[in-house]
Write a structure and sequence with these properties.
Order of helices and strands: HEHEEHEHHEHEEHEEHEHEHHH
Bound molecules: NADP nicotinamide-adenine-dinucleotide phosphate
Radius of gyration: 20 Å
Strand order of the largest sheet: 3-2-1-4-5-6-10
Strand content: 5-15%
Distance between the termini: 28 Å
Length: about 325
Amino acid sequence: MRRSQDEVLAQGPKVLVTGATGLLGRAVCREFQSHGWVVTGTGFRRARPRFLRCDLTDEDAVRRLLQEYKPDVVIHCAAERRPDVMERNSDAAVGLNVHATSTVSKEAAACGAVLIYISTDYVFDGRNPPYGEDDSPNPLNLYGRSKLEGERETLRHCPGAVILRVPVLFGEVESVMESAVTSLWQKIQEATEESCPMEHFMQRFPTDARDVATVCRKLAERARQDPSIRGIFHFSGKEQMTKYEMAVAMAQAFNLPSNHLIPLTEQPAGSTPRPINSQLNCSRLELLNLSVEPRAFSTSIVECLWPFTADKRWRQTVFH
Ligand code: NAP
């Protein structure tokens, strides 16, 4: 977000959030702002008018940005996070996930900022869960490899940085297609005579972006005081579900039928490989009292989806 004159004069610590127009970045901006931080957010295609526009693949632009704002903390959320898009458009996506991360890390180190790099459970192959922070990554697809490479670039240029790995996210969305979780909503609403096959073999741990944002703030506040807060951390929701189970839970939460949803227990041939169960062990955050109790899926998902319901009684009866 662009800063007003009043905010520039404010005394709070300064955070720079990349990917502020994205699902997680928006939640991170809100979390820090509501706790007295001076927030500068950057985006790219959706940046204006609320946020600064900065193409993170442009090294000079990133250098100017960091030198001008001199943040105390950088939360690096920007990434290409869609595995299928990555496979189709690999050069651009690697440019953002790896090279831009390298530039952001160098410039964060140069200005002495605490850097938090958001990574993913897709760095693991999913064959031997749960995964601790020290377990060996073995990504199955280009997205996972690029995020792992981003982790290594982060720690190479900014050894005091924090890496926060998270699983599939959902939250307040601008369109339901913005998250792999809320995108199931379309299939739930297609309740016709036709059956609707839905993936039921990969275990997921859907996580509310607001909880991740709170963990980022707690990590940032502690890391500013304590340089031993560095390296890899895991955070995850606790409810294990396949996409089929998420869809049934979403239908139940809105009293909608789910009998048209058919569990599909085999991976379709030719799809981008994904880990079957990359459950994260989050004990490091918990031991340091830096975690939060994840919100319950059934209530969070209603908060995210009610603007997309045809039945506006949800607004009146439940939320207002
Ligand atoms: P998102 O909603 O897809 O947002 C991506 C962000 O990257 C947008 O703000 C976008 O800006 C920005 N961006 C794209 N190209 C850019 C460029 N060339 N220069 C500068 N910014 C650029 O992503 P998200 O879901 O919030 O993900 C946040 C982080 O969490 C990512 O690091 C991702 O790998 C990680 N993660 C996400 C999930 C998930 O399920 N979403 C799961 C695990 C980990 P514009 O839209 O303005 O162009």
